[in-house]
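Thread: quick sanity check before group meeting

JM: Hey all, I'm pulling together slides for Thursday and realized we never actually wrote out the predicted structure for the chain we discussed last week. Dropping the sequence here so it's in one place. If anyone has concerns about the input, flag it before I start.
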Amino acid sequence: MKLRNFLYLNTKLLDDYLSAIDGYISDTEIHTDSQTNKKSGHLEGGIPVVHGSGDAEKTEAEEIKKEVKITEASKFEKLFTYLDENDLKYYEFLNANNFDELSRDDFMEVLVSPRFSKLKKFTDLAQKLGKFANAMQPFADQPLIDLKAKQALSGFDALGQIKNGSEVSCVFSFEDKEYPLVAYLDEQYFKVLQERFVGQVYMLCKIQRKILKGQNVKLDEIFESFKNMPLNRSQRRKMPKNLNNPSEIKDVVRGPAFVVIPIAVYQ
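JM (edit): ok, ran it. Output follows.
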């Protein structure tokens, strides 16, 4: 059994999969412990001719039942064991043959390094700079940032507020940078601060779709909802021609690649 330090664990997915396997889900179970007690006693007896006395032992068996909580780590181990017994695939890198063999709904464990999208990096940095400037301003004789810089930070902060509470776009890369994995992490299932979500990690995931060579995935497209609005021809003509992200935050993952559903990320 592997001992894991979880950085991310989608407990809803975990419960859903275990429910499908067992037909039910439980957060507690009954443990029974057997305990044997030996008690000593003194016996006396006699008949008219012979008298005697001696010690005797009495053995009693006792069962102790207690209700215990099933931990998230225990649930994960159960799911991992089930998948491992049903041909779970493990990869430290991928090649063309692996890519062709893998398909939608396959589970795999991979050794990868994560990075957040460029937009998230910019918005996180803007928020930190804004907080730093506000904290240090009382100790400065003049504004630490000029009006234009403040407006730019406010703009990025506004983008961060739009993305706040939604899924976090993340790219997981093998050491050779080939066949990247695009994933969308639900913020409520992070087990560590997001700035600690770095370094080489293991990920258990399910393939959602394959991105073939010549195809791509655009991360955190700001104007994606506008592009998908049901507009008539006249309205479309009035829309700006370029609704793509600015080059500074443009983030495109090109195939061959995968879009995956992450169950857990751990070390």
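AS: nice. The longest strand covers residues 28-46. Residues 118-136 form the longest helix (19 residues).
JM: adding both to the slides.
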